[in-house]
From TrEMBL:
NCBIfam families cross-referenced by the UniProt entry: cbbA (TIGR00167)
Gene that encodes it: gatY
Alphabetized Pfam families for the sequence: F_bP_aldolase
Cofactor: Zn(2+)
Superkingdom: Bacteria
Protein name from the UniProt record: Fructose-bisphosphate aldolase
Cofactor binding note from Swiss-Prot or TrEMBL: Binds 2 Zn(2+) ions per subunit. One is catalytic and the other provides a structural contribution.
SUPFAM superfamilies: Aldolase
GO molecular function, one term: zinc ion binding
Length: 299
């Protein structure tokens, strides 16, 4: 299989009762962690790169990512996470991403709609799918001890109007999750009742749950059963990866990546495998056998 856009990838999720995990990466080791484990699970995957991550890993890194995806036995979408401007989306499209997000959810309604629609028009010309966001996702902070800032729940009316006015392919919704790992004094609660109403309002639009890390498995699985098609993750598997790296560095003073990263990759893979089970995505790559690849050479 090969590179696909988000429309191709998520079209099969609701009718087959699963979601696709979307994992943030910014270096070769994290790419390996995600793709190798999803290949082992025969689960579809989404490789995500945030604008800040792209600034770190540089545009030429994307050539490696695309080569690895096209050599894979599973369908994979390459997605820009939380694009912060139309220009950032254009940069990703130029680099060969098959999907982009434009996140203007913190702006007023008119600005969010206008810039999302502009991105949709640009991206659809070359077959790139677009994710937008209405409502906002809370934040737990950079550190595990960070304090949660409340997000804004998405209403069914907003979701329907936003999809109609922008033409987005997928929609990120605020249903009670937050980015990062929750501090000990916060008990997350995914609002399934809100999700169900949004699904009724936009039945043909795949819905995305941001802030998938650190939520109870049963709540995430319930959200998938009730219409979530894509779950964004970074903190959970990266935390396992770097905790193992710290353990290794604390035990010896070596500096060779060959000695540092293999165990860290395995630690991250265990989390990815667990998430694929929660999303009911293990073995679902078989649903895409024979799918036509998304072709970036038409850009």
């Amino acid at each position: 299989m090969t590179l696909v856009n988000m429309n191709q990838l998520l079209a099969k999720t609701r009718k087959n009762n699963f979601a696709v995990g979307a994992y943030n990466v910014s270096n070769l080791e994290l790419v390996r962690t995600v793709i190798e484990q999803c290949e082992e699970d025969y689960a579809p995957a989404i490789i995500m790169i945030h604008p800040t991550e792209l600034r770190y890993c540089k545009d030429d890194f994307i050539s490696y990512v695309l080569t690895r995806i096209r050599d894979s036995k599973i369908p994979v979408a390459l997605h820009l996470d939380h694009g912060d401007s139309v220009d950032s989306a254009a940069r990703a499209i130029h680099d060969g991403f098959s999907s982009v997000m434009i996140d203007m959810s913190a702006e007023d309604w008119e600005t969010n709609v206008a810039l999302t629609r502009e991105t949709v028009i640009m991206a659809h010309r070359v077959g790139v799918s677009v994710e937008g966001e209405v409502g906002t996702i809370g934040k737990t902070g950079v550190h595990i001890e960070g304090h949660k800032k409340e997000g804004i729940y998405t209403t069914p009316e907003e979701a329907q109007k936003f999809v109609e006015e922008t033409g987005v392919d997928t929609l990120a919704v605020g249903i009670g999750t937050s980015h990062g790992i929750y501090p000990p004094d916060v008990t997350p609660k995914i609002r399934i009742d809100i999700l169900q109403k949004i699904v009724q309002a936009v039945p043909d639009t795949p819905l995305v749950m941001h802030g998938g890390s650190s939520n109870p498995d049963e709540q995430v699985a319930d959200a998938v059963k009730n219409g979530i098609s894509k779950v964004n993750l970074a903190s959970d598997y990266k935390n396992a990866f770097f905790q193992k790296a710290r353990e290794i560095l604390a035990k010896n003073d070596g500096w060779d990546p060959n000695n540092l990263f293999p165990e860290a990759i395995e630690a991250g893979k265990k989390v990815v495998h667990h998430k694929n089970k929660v999303f009911n995505s293990i073995g679902k790559a078989k649903l895409y056998e024979g799918i036509d690849p998304w072709r970036s050479d038409k850009i």
